[in-house]
Amino acid sequence: xxxxxxxxxxxxxxxxxCACAPAIVASAREDVNYAGLxxxxxxxxxxxxxxxxxxxxxxxxxxxxxxxxxxxxxxxALPERRRILVVTADYCLDSANTIxxxxxxxxxAPERLExxxxxxxxxxxxxxxxxxxxxxxGRMQHEFRVYGRDGEPCDRCGRPIEKIRAAGRGTWFCPGxxxxxxxxxxxx
Length: 188
Prior knowledge:
Blueprint: H1 2-26, H2 34-40, H3 44-50, H4 55-64, H5 69-76, E1 82-88, H6 93-108, E2 113-119, H7 120-129, E3 162-166, E4 169-173
Parallel strand pairs: 1-2
Antiparallel strand pairs: 3-4
Helix pairs in contact: 1-6, 4-6
């Protein structure tokens, strides 16, 4: 459950990096010391160095992560520098599958993006502060639309859900509603 909450917070922070920050910042709570958490956070490189659990997965995903040149250009065009605080735990496979891509994006636009990582114990106030609009903690694991539904019809368009392997894990998607990410793969 904590791992899914971390992924939701990651999604909110990724949106902040993509120039949606005013919505996130406007909802920031005064009782959370974001600057203090950021100041005590580690760089992604330090996080990778100190990871005990899933170290190989974190490194492999970071080494394989690619970000489109267009997205890097958009980040470099941001009018001001953005700081991204990631709340995660090294054992969280969802984070190991997603945060390395955010780290690559930060690497591509260091003049506009900075990222620090903090653990879930210190970052709990952030996770509590950023809940769903109806006040629930991030619990998207209960809202599956395609997960585990290989061959079943999509709720939206009726096409059969497909399953592929990505980074050694099963990934389900609707070929009618979700476009594959092939633009960032040079040989695709």
